[in-house]
Amino acid sequence: MATTRAERLLAPADLQDPATFSQGIPQEAFAEMRARPTLSWTPPSGGDRTGFWSVTRHAPVSEVSRDADLYSSAVGHIQIYDIDEDALSARASMIDLDPPVHTRLRRLVSSAFTPRHVQSYETAVRARIAERLDALMQAGGGNWVEAVAAPIPIGVICDIMGVPESDHDYMIELTDHLVAGTSSKPLEAGAYGNTTDLRLLPFNSPAAHGINEYARALGERRRAEPADDLITKLIEAEVDGERLTDAEFTNFFRLMVFAGNETTRASMAHLALHLVEFADQFERLRSDPSLLDQAVEEVIRYSSPILYFRRTLTRDTVLQDTPLRAGDKVVMWYAAANFDEEVFDEPLRFDVTRPLRPPNVAFGGGGAHFCLGAPLARLELAILIEAILSRGIDLRLAGDPVHVDSNFVNGIEHLEVEVR
């Protein structure tokens, strides 16, 4: 029997507060929520004016992901906090839109991330990873995030887009500060020369202004001097017979830099922890390289780099015995669904032999918004793991990890390691 709205079960943790995620995924709270027959409710607080329902099981997360008509990305906002109507269009990128608009925009860049194209990046990815690991080994260790996890994925996506090598560190800085908009310590409003009201900027961060300005300047260069890169393709692209507007182009650029960097970076950062904590599993992989694809998926599942995305109901429905009304917010907690006991045997066990099916939902639960860059992320992780094992790198932690201050990205900001 479906619960009534008056019988709402409150979430056992404050999922609005970045501090809840200061040590990573709050496994106990999510396990308690998964065990409930209904969705859990979080009342309004902070930037959330209405409260939201949390979806924590694997099957309902996939159900929400696959029904973009009922569970909308364009109505409301894709993060928990609310934004004003006039900010929706100003901030909207492909990820904030529903089909068919989303589909038309996604088609502009999808060819760059097909499995065939992704394989063509392999040589460049191997070179970047070799350079970073060799430098780390020569130094005897250092900050794993700064040395390995951050520069590799930003270097790869910037190569695809056409961002000069000299600007890669600046892109890392900007995306770091973009995520800071979801933290308890956001940047000053005027950072990066910003004069725009923060409520009109993605993540409420002035770093979004910095990325927009960089994108405009690079776009102007490509108009004058076209190149074989994604930026030139976006500059020259037409949707329904019209070129992208300035806002559409800059929003596209920002999404590519953020999504192509942050999620893979978070998984690579967590990989160092996995290599230490689950060393026996990687020894098993070393003796049986055929397990590489499974090991990559296990790293992604266990890391769950993006904690959630939100959708908004377009009409009344019932989900997991919970009556929902048009306008209600539902939050898909990928980091909870990836540890669903009904789907993954002993989910807290890191296991490189875990079957590939059923799949994890770290890249989304399917549907229109399934992560475009998933094949690229998998390639980068596979090559990094191979390179670490082939070099016989033995990591030791030289300090506790410092987690990113966010309830949106399950990232690591700093992790000192020693290399033997």
Question: How would you characterize the overall build of this protein?
Answer:
- The protein has 420 residues and is an alpha+beta fold.
- The chain has a single domain, classed as Cytochrome p450 (Orthogonal Bundle).
- β9 and β10 form a beta hairpin.
- α9 packs across α12 and α12 crosses α13.
Q: What's the quick description here?
A:
44% of the residues lie in helices and 11% in strands. It has 420 residues and is of the alpha+beta class. The strands form five sheets. The protein has a six-stranded mixed beta sheet with strand order 1-2-3-11-8-4.
Quickly give the structural class.
Answer: alpha+beta
Find the CATH superfamily: Cytochrome P450
Helix content: 40-55%
Q: If strands are numbered along the chain, what order do they take across the biggest sheet?
A: 1-2-3-11-8-4
What oligomeric state best describes the polypeptide chains here?
single chain
Number of domains: 1
Average pLDDT, all residues? 91
- Overall 3D geometry? globular
What is the tally of beta strands?
15
Q: β content, as a range?
A: 5-15%
Gross CATH architecture: Orthogonal Bundle
Number of helices: 16
Low-confidence stretches: none
CATH topology: Cytochrome p450
Distance between the termini: 58 Å
* Major sheet description: 6 strands, mixed
Whole-angstrom Rg: 21 Å
Q: What's the CATH C level? A: Mainly Alpha
